[in-house]
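Now for a concrete sample entry.
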Amino acid sequence: MNRKLLFIFSMLFCFGFSNGATITSTGTGNWTATTSWIGGTVPTINDDVIIGSGSTITLSTNVSIKSLTINGTLLASGDPIVSTSAGNILVVTINGVLDFNTNQSSIRFPAGTIVDINPPGRIDDTGGGCSNQVALFIGTVKFAVCVGSGNAEYTFAQLNNLGGTLQSKPTSNAPICEGSTLNFTAAKDGADGAALNWHWSVKIPGAASFVNYPDKQSVVSFANAISGSYEANLTYTTTYGGSVYTSSKTIFATVNAKPAVPTISTSGATTFCDGGNVTLTSVTGTSYLWSTGATTKSIVVTTSGNYSVQVTNAAGCQSLSSSATTVTVKSSLPTPNVVSITQPTCVISTGSVELNGFISATNGQVYQSGSSTQTYSVSGSNYTIANLAPGTYTFTAQDGVNCTSLPTVSIVIKAPDVNTWNGTTWSKVSVPISSDIIEFAENYQSIGDISGCSCKVKGGKEVTINSPHTLFIDNQLTVESATGTKLIFENNASLIQRNNVINTGNIIYKRISPQIRQADFVYWSTPVNPQKLVDVSPLTLGDKYFRYSGTNWVITNRSTTMVVGEGYIIRGPQNYSNTIRADYTASFIGVPNNGNVTSATLDSGKFYLLGNPYPSALDADQFILNNPVLTGTLYFWTHNTPVVFGTSYKYNADDYASYNLTGGVAAKTATTASGNNKEIPGGKIAAGQGFFTETSSSGIVTFTNAMRFGSNSQFFKPAKTSKVALEKNRLWLNMTNDGGAFKQILIGYIEGATNDYETRYDGQTIDGNPYLDFYSVNNGHKLVIQGRAVPFSDTDIVPLGYKSTIAGSFTISIDQADGNLVNQAIYLEDKTTNSIHDLRTGNYTFTTSTGIFDGRFVLRYTNNKTLKKVAIEDVEQKILVSAKEKIIKVTSTKENIKEVFIFDVTGKLLYNKKKIDSTELQISGLQSNQVLLIKTIFGNGNVTTTKMVF
């Protein structure tokens, strides 16, 4: 075997260094004719011969060549012999036709010649079947038309079908890259012959000799192939007609080297904060594959991870992955949230910013940049940065571990604007707004309301706030003390301040008590401090200044300084007439009161004379709601009735107008004399106004700026909707006679009220009139004002009573109505006469003897007594409200429940459930330890309100 390989190698070596040419035939002719060949050269032993397509060459003599390719037709004539040089294996490739001139012709090739037939190429004959004697010899092996005509196992037709004689055709998967598996695969073509065998001989790069492999090994593999050229020889052997036939072929397989492992360079630090980046670059290579899938030389990295790269050379071989470069992106702290910005004011020259969203950390810090820089230590999630001068700022969070947060939006701290009146115009051109510092540098007369942050009147200037204008300021009022400086508030003008700040300098507050007589007492309080009683009415006799102790009237020294928040009564000036009324103007000069004002501790169950402490109106509803020590009804003196002269002056107690959360009733209005006060208190207590109220428990009474109101036109006349928006449906009834007796009552259906007695909604009659008292009755209480539950139902009835020391005729009439009662039918049932009168059609006049008559009248809204009785009894018997484990259960024993409302004692709606359509409802989630009012509406329209402590 080794000698054979050496022989083949020697032939290939010699062949490789032979000099020859490729000679191609042209046209038709004899082999030996120069005209048969392109270039006129007849082929010789070292030439590769091609019979051109379309060309027919007749071979009739012996020739020597290197190889033969038949694309046209080679016609053998006679018995020509084709030989080749020693060591060369002749390869005859038939793509056209090898034919014979006669049926006696043959062609001979040297032993070992390879005949490669590629269809439609073929060996042809001249016809005649097996009698045809044409033959093809390879050495001594004869191939003929028919088996038996020669010593070979194959006929021409079989050779044509099989592709010729046995041909070694090894293959490989080269070129490949080092480290991959190199495979050499055995393959052949042509007729197998009788004893087919094959074997490999391979020489690896750098080796001195070949390595032989076992026979019939189809694939020779080299795992993890090294770079270089592999040389592999595949030799097939067989026998044709008993003669050995060999086909051997050597191929070369190239294993390309991989590129060197690349390295990575970085543009900067590989540990950075969120929002940053680093560029990674492969130092070597021309083609790249990053672990991210990117194929560029450089990549920009913004996220944490391990990054590597492989490079590919021109041969397509890829390097091993580079060492990983670790990138660490540190999280940034959350940007602080701006919760609120407090701008500088006329009181505080710096602003502040409240931030939150900080992650609690030992070294937590807030860094301030902008108009000034500062670092603050933070330990919680919230932080307020104070004392910020006007400017622009941003803030970031730091903790020494994570990255600094992004900055907040720019925060602008603005200096408050100063808007100055120069005698002609404002310095900002427009009138002041609520954020302006108002300065009066010249005299000024108001033409409307003015708003600002603070107000200053410069020395020597006179500013007048005319009626009914209001000066609204958030902070302090400053009136400079120079000679001639005045800030005057005319009657019904107001000063309202929001914050509890200290004012500087005096104002002059004028208050007109309209149409009084010398013997009339006016109920006063002071809106400034200090204020002496005598300065309110200097011409009043010295023993006609009083305060009320809770039990009795106490004469008070006229030089006494008035206590802020307390009421006083002062009789008219001594020079006033007792028959002709005239306005009286009181001037209060001092620092205007502001902020919280508290009374001394008051005893339970007594009446006290209090007073509005502010130079603005006071919201009566807010005052009542915010002072639970009071019963809830306020009484305002009107003194419509002239004093009765005798050994002592006599005053009528019926001249008190009344007000609570249900509404107000007027004092005596039967007399139409000029100056009588006919107004019904509407919920606004004017500046300088004193009033009576009763305590339900001991404690203090507090006045606050939140109760202040801009409507200040009369002592008890409203000009603006109350801050407490409640549903109110009210009816005022008057009882009078021709002799001037008068009493008014109020029945109101009010949101938050119940049908039980409640001091904030029900006001008891004072019963001070010696002649007449008129009232509604509820659970034994005689009420001048009675509040009842909403929604209003026309099945409701209200008992009415009266007391009279005069026998004779009296009249009951409708004074006015509001809400749902404006168009509601109003009936008065007289149980003495057993009649029902429609008050909408006219007043009801009746006669009475003296005495107390609590059960004579019933106010109703239908004239069907039977229907009313059944409805009331039905409602009273069918509702049960209970509480257990913070769950309220409302149960109806008869009708389905349609809707439920729950209010607190201030009238605030806490809960509402509609479309219940069931006899039971359970309610959870309400705050315990409070008094609740549960209003239930039934499917038939009936309504009941129940009070409970939850």
Summary: The first helix runs from residue 2 to 16. The radius of gyration is 61 Å. The CA atoms of residues 142 and 652 lie 162 Å apart.
